[in-house]
Amino acid sequence: MDRPRKPFDPERLLDALDAFEAWNCRQSPFLRLPLGSALCLGGIAFVLPIFGLWMLPLGLLVLSEDIRWLRDRRERLEAWLRRLLGERRARRQARLEHKKGY
Predict the structure, then answer these.
(1) HSE (side-chain half, CA atoms, 13 Å) at 21
(2) 9: left (phi over 0), alpha (psi -120 to 50) or beta
(3) More confident position, 99 or 4
(4) Where are the domains of the chain?
(5) Burial of 21 (0-12, 13-18, 19+ CB in 10 A)
(6) CB 59 within 8 Å of CB 33
């Protein structure tokens, strides 16, 4: 039986960030800037029925390719997630080795 998924899984988040970054790099800045701005504005208007607060982080991610300050923050977040994931894997591996009696 499959284990239930955690609400915050760093592996899934890193995979999504990598896929989004690959998509974002292929797009033109003439598409990214208006799209990111529109998503941020829609996120600010989250009280309206169609818009939602989910649009704000997505807009910032789109804009992060063109705005250096946002790109630095995104790269720091990715580095922190990769470090967190590496520590979790190391602890899990040590726990498995301890159980096996190595």
Answers:
(1) 11
(2) beta
(3) 99
(4) 10-100
(5) middle
(6) no
- Find tokens 């300050």 and name the residue: 69
Per-residue model confidence (pLDDT) at position 55? 86
Residues 56-89 have pLDDT tens digits of 888 998 898 889 999 999 899 889 988 888 887 7
b/e sequence 52-67, b meaning 16+ C-beta within 10 Å = eeebbebbbbbbbbee
d(CA 83, CA 14): 11
Measured between alpha carbons, how far is 30 from 37 in angstroms, rounded to an integer? 11
